[in-house]
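Before a colleague's protein record goes any further, I have to sign it off. Thanks in advance; the entry in question is below:
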Amino acid sequence: MKSKKWITLIVLIFILIYFSVSIWMLSSVKATLRTIYLHPEKDNQIVHKQVTESALNKFHRNEIYPPSSSSQEEIIAYSTNMGIGLHSFYSGTIWIKYTYKAIDKKTKEVKYGSSRVPLQLKVKLKNGSWRITDKYEKP
């Protein structure tokens, strides 16, 4: 009887640790995505720490979204869904959807953007932070 309790306790602790790492991985990657899409001027700061250069080059922000020269005339609405991730404690895959819309300040109409775009991201744990190493986005 005691061995079943120990096994149950060990399994529960493992599950708790696994989900804790999953939440940490998802929140870290969401913060990186927010920086990638809303602050392209910080690309040099996040390369090699939060995202590899090859993965960053797969984010086609300039081709999809116009430059923010008219940013005084528009509001950027960016959001992600909760997402899901599987990992092996040092690498993993995340599936997440994001929405990016530019809304005209005067008319409140959407000028351009994308809604619920699915992303698949490969990540690795390096120096205590999750790094995006690869990205696949359905067109």
In short: The chain has a mean pLDDT of 87.
